[in-house]
Design goal:
With 44 residues, this protein is mainly beta. It has one domain (7-37). It is 0% helix and 52% strand. It contains no helices and four strands. The protein has a four-stranded antiparallel sheet, with no helix packed on it. It is globular and about 30 Å long.
Length: 44
């Protein structure tokens, strides 16, 4: 996905939802400085 645009949407104070096209990839927590991924967003 290098060079591609990602979607970011703030869902709570310091918590951002990350998506690519219509796939949910995970959440960024700015306070904890972590990325919580969603298990296999592209399916089987």
């Amino acid at each position: 996905m290098a060079g591609q645009r990602l979607g970011l949407k703030q869902v709570d104070d310091g918590i951002w939802h990350v998506s690519f096209m219509h796939y949910d990839l995970g959440y960024i927590d700015l306070e904890q400085r972590t990325l919580q991924t969603i298990d296999n967003p592209f399916g089987t």
